[in-house]
Amino acid sequence: MMQSNVYNLEERSYLFAKKVRGFVKNIEKSISNKEDIKQLVRASGSVAANYIEVNENLGPRDILMKLKICKKESKEAILWLRLLDVEKVREDERQELIREATELKNILATIYRKISQKGEIKMSNPI
Question: What are the structural domains, with CATH classification, of the chain?
């Protein structure tokens, strides 16, 4: 089971990417699964990498842009997880990863909204 109680988002997004990598190791390598696995691994790692950049605080506009990217990559991870052809015995594990990606997406969207509503920065394309 995923550690939903990890409040440090940098660590939580890292753990999500790490769990994804463990999950895909033993999935059948069909043509479609190979491509979906590549995309899933990239998306999960991108959530973690971009959140690290959020914490580097390069300025409010950069923070909002990196948060948008994190949210987008979380949504993509959900898509790739759903598309994978996995054995029924792995379905619970997949659903747990989808739940975690969804929670990360929602948390990141909330952070974005709160920062942008403070009036410090107005982005033309809110997430």
Answer: 9-117 (1.20.1440.60)
